[in-house]
Design brief:
This protein is 52% helix and 10% strand. By secondary structure, it is mostly helical. The strands form two sheets. A two-stranded antiparallel ribbon has the order 1-2.
Length: 207
Amino acid sequence: MFTAHKTTPPNMKRLFDIIFSTIGLVALSPLLLSVALAIKLSDSGPIFYRGVRVGKGGKPFRMFKFRSMVVNADTIGGPSTSGDDKRLTRIGIFLRKGKLDELPQLIDVLRGTMSFVGPRPEVPHYINLLTQEEKNSILSVRPGITDYASLWNFNEAEILRGSADPEKTYQEKIWPEKKRLQMKYIKEQSFRTDIAILLQTIKRLIT
């Protein structure tokens, strides 16, 4: 059973998500359409990558991302992606550098499967590695586009670059601290904390 967290007023957070994801999708629509067209023209494959992630309460959902890798990349490699991953397309490398591949997650925020701020959604494999206490905490809230762990590990692909086994490197160098910071967010979450994380994320993207 997953324990609900009471610190952040859920109605206020959800209203914020709906309003600003709608504004974001409208304001960024020319950029979104341009990226979608560029992906389609590059190899005529799908525009979006709809990977399975685990959401609030342990419910799986398919997250929106612009496709930055070759078609069927899941079948020829693991979930961790290094900066020099051979599965990345030419346009995918560009999209990932600017975090542009993450923009379609505004759709997930509007749908309610994600929030602007919350633990990054994981693949089922990594959720199964969590302790029951970690599951109860991390899965008690909607996963987010950004959080403490995202700020700490802003360029994960560069950490994994050059690794002979990116999955092993992820598990050893990233996963333990990522879990700790996700648990830290759960304990400290509030509307003020969410705004602070969002502002820091925007600052990182700009600088």
